[in-house]
RNA sequence: GGGGGGAUGCCCGAGUGGUUAAAGGGGGCAGACUGUAAAUCUGUUGCGUAAGCUACGUUGGUUCGAAUCCAUCUCCCCCCA
């Protein structure tokens, strides 16, 4: 099967330059393909995973991926579809984040497989020595401001009467355009992929490469992944779902996928996993026959957790899930509890040997204030060691603990372990 | 350089001297139903047990009383040059 047909089946193609041409281009040799990631935070999140895994898909199909981390573009800020101007991060921050993203991205493609081994680059390398005059003369001359202003991606910023756009952000697309042109020159890169919001920036590169390198290169964008309600995918109540286990624990990560809405399971299996068509069809057959068993969600959660955090972390995540949602808390052994703690269940140690429920909740940061904690307790939202408690003054001590700890549950699925002095 | 508009709670947004901890919507959280799903319905959403305290860009002022009036500063937007 041609890689493009597979991608099409997975719903991974949104827009592209002449698709027949691109298909032929991919069939007729090993191609070099790139995608860029700007350091806008100290970790990637599940949204970044789509293009990153796409690079991997191309690598598996025999092509050579380049993972670009935007040390330079990250200094400027991409205005595409952003409603407001962003404040600039300091040079030190960007540098720090750049390093972190470089480490993260390298886990998803193979840098050691011969001819089509992946390459990691940083656009800071070819922009740092650029001087203003040559940038404006050599690069800037190829861009029409009229055209740039017509871009859908900056329309919001040009039309809203309470928002503007700085020259800094407006110029962003020139830098990204330059990246493509450079990678084409240095590595004969002929395909760039990115989210559909990147179409404009990618086209800047396609145009610039044609003008400066006299090369016709390709562009391919991926659809924006959304939730069932149409909003952006990858957010939970506590923010983005990060790939960094220190920011989003493997257990939380696993749970995130396990909680996917039914109507989205098939879509995400196709977009995010490397399961074959047959495997996905088989999973969905089971899912549709018995949706309440959530075989689809389970498969998705397993595949993703294994991919991002590894087999061991997956097993931990599964065992916590098992203990919390299947068994009864009172049956947990001392060992199980140690395991839960190790596997990343939120944990707080309290100094003292007796606390009211209210104190325990606020001290463990389960609620931001006493007021909030009271509301939760009154609202029947708190369970202690498996039993609902509605008395804020209920006393927690060593005596009524489970093997030395208290396990608090807020709502349906937020757990917290509390240990106190003996 | 000149002229005009604006800054309100997580976000959008109403409010133009007291009944405003601040309408409405979104989002969040929680409850019911369920399958750790979706949809729906309900409650809640500054801090404080409470009295009360702190809040409407900054600082100061007018007033018995200000998010609302005046001055100042900061920032943003639009138009003209």
Radius of gyration: 25 Å
Which strand order do you get reading across the main beta sheet?
A: 1-6-5-2-3-4
Shape: globular
Sheet of most strands: 6 strands, mixed
Amino-to-carboxy terminus distance: 64 Å
User: Which range best describes the helical content: under 10%, 10-25%, 25-40%, 40-55%, 55-70% or over 70%?
Assistant: 40-55%
Q: What structural class do you assign from the helix and strand content?
A: alpha/beta
Query: Spans of 5+ residues with little confidence (pLDDT < 50)?
Result: none
Percentage beta strand: 5-15%
Strand elements, count: 15
Mean pLDDT: 91
Q: How many helices does DSSP assign?
A: 20
Description of the molecule:
- With 422 residues, the protein is of the alpha/beta class.
- It has 20 helices and 15 strands.
- The strands form four sheets. Strands 1-6-5-2-3-4 form a six-stranded mixed beta sheet, sandwiched between helices.
- β2, α3 and β3 form a beta-alpha-beta unit.
- α13 packs antiparallel against α16, α13 packs across α17 and α14 runs parallel beside α16.
- The longest helix has 16 residues.
- The protein starts with a helix and ends with a strand.
- The structure holds one RNA strand of 81 nucleotides.
Strand and helix layout:
Blueprint: H1 3-9, E1 15-16, H2 19-27, E2 32-37, H3 46-60, E3 64-69, H4 73-76, H5 91-105, E4 119-122, H6 124-127, H7 132-139, H8 145-150, H9 152-159, H10 167-170, H11 172-187, E5 189-195, H12 199-213, E6 218-222, E7 235-236, E8 239-240, H13 250-258, H14 262-272, H15 277-289, H16 295-309, H17 311-325, H18 334-342, E9 347-350, E10 354-356, H19 357-363, H20 370-378, E11 382-384, E12 387-388, E13 395-397, E14 405-410, E15 414-420
Parallel strand pairs: 2-3, 2-5, 3-4, 5-6, 9-15
Antiparallel strand pairs: 1-6, 7-8, 10-13, 11-12, 11-14, 14-15
Helix pairs in contact: 11-12, 13-16, 13-17, 14-16, 16-17, 19-20
The structure holds one RNA strand of 81 nucleotides.
């Amino acid at each position: 099967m041609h890689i493009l047909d597979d991608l099409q089946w997975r719903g991974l193609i949104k827009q592209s330059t002449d698709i027949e041409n691109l298909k032929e281009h991919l069939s007729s040799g090993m191609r070099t393909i790139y995608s860029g990631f700007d350091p806008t935070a100290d970790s990637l999140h599940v949204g970044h995973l789509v293009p990153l895994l796409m690079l991997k898909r191309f690598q598996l199909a025999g092509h050579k991926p380049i993972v670009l981390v935007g040390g330079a573009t990250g200094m400027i800020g991409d205005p595409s579809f952003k409603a407001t101007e962003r404040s600039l991060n300091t040079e030190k921050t960007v540098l720090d984040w750049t390093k972190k993203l470089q480490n993260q991205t390298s886990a998803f493609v193979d840098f050691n497989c011969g001819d089509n081994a992946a390459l990691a680059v940083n656009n800071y390398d070819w922009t740092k020595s650029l001087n203003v005059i040559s940038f404006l003369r050599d690069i800037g001359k190829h861009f029409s401001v009229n055209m740039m202003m017509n871009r859908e991606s900056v329309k919001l910023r040009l039309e809203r009467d309470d928002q503007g756009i700085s020259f800094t952000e407006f110029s962003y697309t020139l830098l990204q355009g330059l990246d493509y042109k450079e990678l084409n020159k240095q590595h004969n890169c002929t395909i760039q992929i990115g989210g559909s919001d990147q179409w404009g920036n990618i086209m800047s590169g396609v145009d610039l490469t044609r003008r400066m390198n006299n090369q016709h290169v390709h562009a391919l964008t991926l659809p924006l992944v959304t939730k069932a309600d149409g909003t952006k995918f990858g957010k939970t109540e506590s923010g983005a779902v990060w790939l960094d286990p220190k920011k989003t624990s493997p257990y939380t990560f696993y749970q995130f996928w396990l909680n996917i809405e039914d109507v989205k399971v098939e879509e995400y299996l196709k977009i995010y996993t490397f399961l074959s068509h047959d495997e996905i069809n088989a999973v969905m057959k089971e899912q549709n026959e018995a949706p309440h068993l959530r075989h689809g969600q389970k498969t998705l959660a397993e595949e993703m957790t294994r991919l991002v955090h590894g087999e061991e972390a997956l097993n931990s995540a599964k065992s916590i899930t098992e203990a919390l949602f299947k068994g009864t808390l009172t049956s947990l052994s001392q060992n199980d509890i140690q395991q839960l703690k190790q596997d990343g269940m939120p944990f707080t140690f309290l100094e003292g040997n007796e606390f009211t429920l209210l104190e325990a909740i606020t001290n463990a940061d389960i609620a931001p204030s006493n007021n909030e904690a009271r509301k939760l307790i009154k609202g029947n939202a708190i369970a202690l060691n498996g039993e609902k408690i509605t008395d804020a003054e209920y006393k927690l001590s060593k005596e009524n603990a489970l093997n030395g700890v208290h396990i608090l549950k807020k709502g349906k699925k937020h757990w917290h372990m509390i240990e106190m002095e003996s």
